[in-house]
Amino acid sequence: MSDKLDFLRTVPPFDRLPADVLAEVAEGLEEVRHPREATIYLQDETKLRGLDIIIEGEYETFFYDSQQHRRVVEFTRHGECYGGISLLLNKKKSLRTVVAKKATRVYFLHRREFLALCQGYESFFHFFTARYGRRMLDEEYAHFVRPATTGSSFLAADQLFSRRIETLELRPLELCAAYVPIQEVARRMAAARTSCYFITDADENGRVIGYVTDITLRDKVVAGLADARLPVETILDAPVVSISSRAFVYEAILLMFRTKTRYLLVETDGEYVGFLSRNKLLTDDQAQSPFIFIQSVKQAQAVPELKRRWEQVPEMVYQLLNRGVKPEIVNQVITTVSDTIALKLIEGAIAELGPPPARFVYMVLGSEGRKEQTLLTDQDNAIIYEDKANEQRELVRAYFLRLAEMVSDQLNDIGFSYCDGGFMAKNPKWTHSLSHWKRNYVEWMSHSNPETGMQFAASFDCRYLFGDATIMAELHEFLARELEQPSERFFHYMAVNALQYEPPLTFFRNIRTFAHGDQQVFNLKKTMSPIVDLVRMYALRHRIFATNTGERLEALRQQGIFTERETQELLQAYYYLMGVRLKKQAVQIISDHAAPDNYLDPGTLTKVEQVTLKEIFKVIADFQLKIKVSFTKSLG
Prior knowledge:
This protein is α+β, with helices and mostly antiparallel strands. It contains 25 helices and 21 strands.
């Protein structure tokens, strides 16, 4: 008995218990021995009877991935516990597989006694919940800690969202030169039994410049009565879209929808190794309803049908999150649905108005520009058109303002409400020529103040959606040159804007709230804003024009601006909050039949979730401190 008691006094968190309670716990411990290489628990299968405290030997703990590889391998040794998080958070099932790596001896505490200690002693309970909160900031750990599935689902998440393109069987690449006659290409397609032939330029490097499909031959040759003896370059489709073989399957499908391509070249180390067909991906077992759903949006014929589709999105979001799909992926699904809707409306408006009188770009801004849309979203969009001669300016401008009005009004009817601040193409201030837009950006950067810093920050989250991509490229080239100039004032106010909102964490590590109706809440959107603002600031300072927060962070990591640890902590913090925000909004729409908002009452969360949020708030606060130190001169 005294040996057990002396040992327990050295084991966290038992060392936090009162002496009389500790003596009672020691008396109830049972000693258990495990032989070397014995499998003690199986991941998500074995129901734990209690907590193991290692006396000697060690446990090897790990997750199995879908290929049965061991992931997140760790060791639990003398004076450490295993099972606390599983008992509290995983319906008593072991989170991991556990193997005794040596002949191992443990003290066993029955779960009844363990749970009683958690209920009776806050610091004892906090030891396990705080550890869980810290662990959830590790991306790989969080990936395997999936919520239990409920009800029917849109997909089997582990197959689709964990599988990389390199594991798929690619279709072989069929190539021919641009000067080959159309009829010869058609003959080769028939012989190879392929619906897609890729076309290379006439130079020695054989660069792929486009492709020809069955549909190309039908629409441009047969229906268009083209001469089949002409070179194939006269009818090819472009541009060619490619993706790395290391990308995930879901990324390939979303890229196909965004670029409206049916075929995707796959490259490894700069070499094309094959291609993917959208139809093949969408009929394979791994591609389930989210992408079939996007396809149905694409095929919708009128605004009422698009509205019904958009109203189905909250249910899909809820199910995806419940299946353990990462919030950043759910963001991309929402964004792809909204992009598909907007594209259909733009194409419909152009069909009604007639061909545009100038090259233009319809771009999206803010959360949609960052591909981080939630279920509470308004319109943030703009139009840039090419500069025209004086006599044409009014005609060109009138066309694009009419186009913007038609698209904006229909978006509002579907459920994308008008922007309260007027940041939309329907507002004449947000539809202008390229030269006017360049002047706007110069004005914002050279005459920054606290108001404009906040007002125009989202304008730097602009993303191409429709039109001539070269206009967007020219704008980015212009901004890159401008950002090479001294711009301390601009970054000063960007930093001020980013630092104005502090995470809602009190000095005593409680969550600071305010009254909203009959609840005490904090604002999830504002809590996430510092990460968006600060990452944007660093990206612009280093002339990185990716708009997505995760993509910006990865680019900054690659440039050595952020460490691997900083990058992962910020990513996990940001997307954990995004997951909480999306799920709450989905529940408000589905269950409460209420308009979604960004307010969260911490009292509705479990203690574990509250601890996780506190760890996240600390990450954000530490990040803000780094900014204050880095910008001491400009903030002085």
